[in-house]
């Protein structure tokens, strides 16, 4: 696209004496009318994709009108101003205590937790607590703290690569394979040593939606503990699953019921059903969060402990989370998540029966599933071509390679969120069938220019 560095103002909104184009990369010298500025921004974002048809994202794209009302009443609140907004601060505490109870913390009201800007910040805090605990123990034992490492699957979300990069921790990736599709405790003992600060288990792997079997991972670490004396904790990256499992798989033991689980993080803005900008992290008990990581901010004449990377942060999302907790209750969360799971399983079933595809999983963990092309089906088209065909209809359904050691396998994935109704899902399935029919009728291979996934985890 030719970039002439200016944005043209729709002539209908241009007024006598006002510029008809504005600089893109320089602040205008003069002010403009709010209607005009509004119209420019409004028109620009018209070309973004339709968020309801975005089957790539896990992040909330729909809330009801009372949530919008509450949002507009509270978007001026800064979460860090605990003293100025004591009620918002109190509600933040209620929210993470509710989560602590949902995740079976032994003493939900006596532990430690916080809201964050998303799971990424929450994961960083979980990782930092691991690193500091390990350092304190190593120093106390007169041992070196030079080479900390963190063990996780090769299918981790990018935040864990960032954590290791930013905080100087060696990442140790356990590769996935056809036999071990996620981190399942297999061979774990050969990855951990005295420098392992912790193991990450993912509840709802981003690439496929599968739960990692936390009980098996914990059992493998129990065996390491027994054999070597190394007592290695687990952080649960429950970005999606920590708000699904308590409702849809209540008997699955993945949370603080396992003593080795020290901390759990979740994205409030994924299946917590809030708009973007919210995560949570909770510790099993407050002694697992080293005291020297905690800062105090002034609150009602006293001091309130805080642990966060950001200082200022919107408070409105926290209020929206509390709204959802009240509005939905356990019954509401169950029905919303169950509806998503029903749609995911319906779609997985409909896609799985097509000759062209093999399902990787069926959407019965989090409402997310992936599939690959059946081996030998065709040389004429790939999942990238299918993704392009669906884009013609407005659907965003990404295709991408799996991570090591399966980077030769391309999969395509659908994330079902609140807002993708059964009716919309039927249309999506029709469009997939039609696109596959078109691609299968090709008499030669689709031309390609070195296709690459335009998608990041
Ligand atoms: C989405 C996701 C993250 C990052 O969460 P944000 O809330 O987007 O920062 C981390 N881990 C997993 C497993 C995720 O799915």
From TrEMBL:
Keyword Lyase found: yes
Pfam families from the UniProt entry: Pyridoxal_deC
Catalytic activity: L-glutamate + H(+) = 4-aminobutanoate + CO2
Record flagged with keyword Acetylation: no
Broad enzyme group: lyase
Record keywords: Decarboxylase, Lyase, Pyridoxal phosphate
Requisite cofactors: pyridoxal 5'-phosphate
NCBIfam families xrefs: Glu-decarb-GAD
Assigned protein family: Belongs to the group II decarboxylase family.
Protein name: Glutamate decarboxylase
Organism: Streptomyces camponoticapitis
